[in-house]
């Protein structure tokens, strides 16, 4: 996806030197795809137990049913750039919305687990497409001095999507008297959990109609008057000579560039450029610390250690609220203290809190549905889990998306971002699909493993991650 428009700070800030409201609104609209990312991936949280018992699934089958959407996301992320170059950014976002609507309706009306897998993969493709387009698009339209905050909108939208999904799960389960109980039209509550996902997907499809097409795409298609009009509105540029210069800059960059391919990512270390490995490992560590275990399995987890189903849903919703609040803190800090310091703080905090969770579950008795934690270990585990979410939400949640959108040189940004995003989805799949098995082995082992990855992420950031705060995209080095 060639979103490498040469947008300098003065252009993006407009003639009055201030960030235009349109830039913020466009960034917010693009980030709505992140809301669907969070909603679609987390909505299954409330349905896990009902689906498992309703279809008689084992640990491997339920793990795959929960995580299969992530394989679709990897596929969608990989091909999103090519589709956006051929059909445009707005049309690609509409296609993503269509996939998500189809997935929501199909998942709610399934007759077996393999039907569910099919529709979840389709939804995953839509999520993956949105996950690649949004951060790159936002990074390209944003001035360097606020790029981190605008880029963090993606993560804010994701956590808001998670919160709304878990809140709707809790409300539907409470209304029906349980996720497996009948609700409306002869359908169980867990089916409605999937069906309601069609509403935000439809809203997204409508809202992106108001997002202007990328000036770069318009110039590449020879639609110069439209490109000028978009630049005038989005960047608040009204000087004809400045508009002509900007259009000429874009046209010149298009003539000078060629379409990047995987060959351009080759380097001396492990076959890839060091910056590409950094992007891949940022993506992998973001998932290997186990964050999505909290958001995909938390209701089942808290229910298994003695909390009622209602309390388990309430705890999960409260955790998602905390995640939203701490993401707002991260947005306020990212352009003040930088990306790398926040990552280091988060890695250290996650190592401690995950280690504490591992200690708590080492005190558990029983296994599976009969697992229990003696006092006061249950409460300590609950506090540690929420402290872990705070550490992640302050750092690795938003910072990875910010860095992936801005850290690569212009010449390879599109293809490198696609590779890193695909790696993230595959890592997410690996962690999500293996958690039921790890939980059978022992939750203490599972959280101890995630704590180890958190510690490794600390070492990785110290040695390999470069600070990008305040650096123009044109100055990013390989």
TrEMBL record:
Residues 26-469 form the Major facilitator superfamily (MFS) profile domain. Keywords: Cell membrane, Membrane, Transmembrane, Transmembrane helix, Transport. This is Sugar porter family MFS transporter. It is a multi-pass membrane protein. InterPro entries: MFS_dom, MFS_sugar_transport-like, MFS_trans_sf, Myo-inositol_Transporter, Sugar/inositol_transpt, Sugar_transporter_CS, XylE-like. It is found in: Cell membrane. The chain crosses the membrane at residues 21-39, 59-80, 92-111, 117-138, 150-172, 192-211, 272-295, 315-334, 341-365, 377-404, 416-439, 445-465. Belongs to the major facilitator superfamily. Sugar transporter (TC 2.A.1.1) family. Its main location: membrane.
